[in-house]
Amino acid sequence: MKKVLFIFFLFFALSVQGQGLDSLRREALAGKLGEYFGAIVQEPLAVQAAEADFMIEAASDSLVRQFVAQWLYEHYLESSLMGAEGVAIHILDQWFLPGKVKMTSDMDFLNARIHAEFNRMSLVGEKAPGLAMETNDGQFVELYTGPDKGGAYRVLYFYDTDCAKCRIESILLRNMLNTESFPIEFYAVYAGDDRTSWDTYIKEKLVVDSPGVKVTHLWDPTLESDFQRKYGVIQTPRLFLIAPDGTILGRGLDTKGLYAMLHGIFDQVELTYGSKESEELFDNVFALEERPSKDDVMYISEYINANTLERGDTVMFRQLTGDLMYYLASKTGEGYKEGLSDLLENQIFSRGDVWKSQDDSLKVTGYAEILSDLLSKAVPGTVVPDLKLPGVLMTSKKSKEGTFRLKKLRGGENVVIFYTVGCPVCDAEKAAARSLVQEDPTAKVLMVNVDSIVENDPALADQLFKSFDLTSLPFILQTDKKGRILRRYISLQ
């Protein structure tokens, strides 16, 4: 869908180049921009910045390019998406400041430069700027001014005693911190210079009495720390969440947003995966299909995502997705394995915001990496490893024992069966292979005894296990005349 929107937008943008930009064309172009960038709003901000650059670059007409660049700058500047300001500043740095594109007015350009000056140091993902300030009892405190040795999560709250919104936010913050007892360091920074007003405010609005929260009250009446520019404190309140390593995780927060982020960090429930109950659940889910396809697995995965994570239930998403991963890993069919590959990519590796605890690393992401390594071998669309393997090659006319190159089987349909002796499923697949070559005179089937290779040629066995996922036998794959892998984990029955 996003590709279709992109192609349609690009076609539209190119079609208006050289025609001028009257109000109707501007409105239409803005609509297409809004449609496309709305469709990619879930993508990482770095991806969105790259897309913005591409859109601006694609507009060779100067008026169209100016309109697109200005629209995108304002779109990200005004966005409610946390961190979007960083994309706006990227566009300013990349296009407007070097003079590649001119803003629509000198006043807009001046405002953009001022905004960037007061915000670029405190964007999400950046290291928190250093501060040297004084506490309310006269001590000198330095934050982020040297090598950060890690430690607690920190909340940095800038406020003013004369700010009505700050009074409300301060009370909400105080109540939340006293109720939840998050293990954090809370730095409340008074942005003014009235000591008496400050002392009164602390006693009335910011009394935090929680065993998990370390509270420090700071101020800098002489403004020597340059906190206004470093943290964009043009107005108050300003609320930041900073990771133990000094990385800014959240900015422009309110108490509700901070509450949600802290819960996401500290409320990681330890879960158990792969229970008998979960196995029975997914047995019933997949019971309607004799051999579930990759699309069936993807549907279940996306259904879980839509009904848990997209509704804000992170714990249930982790439980069901983890259970599904363990379930698929225990299965041998093509649909299960290819569906597992998709699950790992789209619901685990790309969701570092969900799988982030030590428990997740041990039980989910670590195991997922092992599974991914196995699934990365002999991927459909790639050329089969050029190995010479001992085995029995069957055609409709004869069976021949010898050593054969996997890339040179040259049948209309090539099937390779890796089997182990004494395996009933392996025997059944070999019997199905004999029927296949009788029904299809162009087919060739190579049967490879893995036990024999392991016993007689350890070096070749090592190559074999590096090239294919042989954790469960039989392992069957199909190649074309040129040795390209068409399918794997298949059954001939």
Overview of the molecule:
It contains 18 helices and 13 strands. Strand 10, helix 16 (424-439) and strand 11 form a beta-alpha-beta unit. It has 493 residues and is an alpha+beta fold. The protein has a seven-stranded mixed β-sheet, with helices on one face. It has helices at 2-16, 23-39, 45-58, 62-77, 84-96, 106-119, 164-180, 195-205, 227-230, 255-266, 276-285, 294-307, 314-329, 334-349, 358-375, 424-439, 450-456, 458-467; strands spanning 131-135, 140-143, 153-159, 184-190, 213-219, 238-242, 248-250, 388-394, 399-405, 413-419, 443-449, 475-479, 485-488. The chain folds into four domains: 2-122, no CATH class; 131-261, Glutaredoxin; 276-375; 388-488, Glutaredoxin (3-Layer(aba) Sandwich), CATH 3.40.30.10.
* CATH class term of the largest domain: Alpha Beta
Q: Which strand order spans the largest sheet, edge to edge or round the barrel?
A: 2-1-5-4-3-6-7
Overall mean pLDDT: 89
Q: How many domain regions?
A: 4
- Beta-strand portion reads 15-25%
CATH level 3 topology of the largest domain: Glutaredoxin
Kindly report the name of the CATH homologous superfamily of the largest domain.
Glutaredoxin
* Uncertain residue ranges: 1-5
User: What is the tally of beta strands?
Assistant: 13
Distance between the first and last residues' Cα: 37 Å
Based on helices, strands and strand pairing, what is the structural class? Answer: alpha+beta
Number of helices: 18
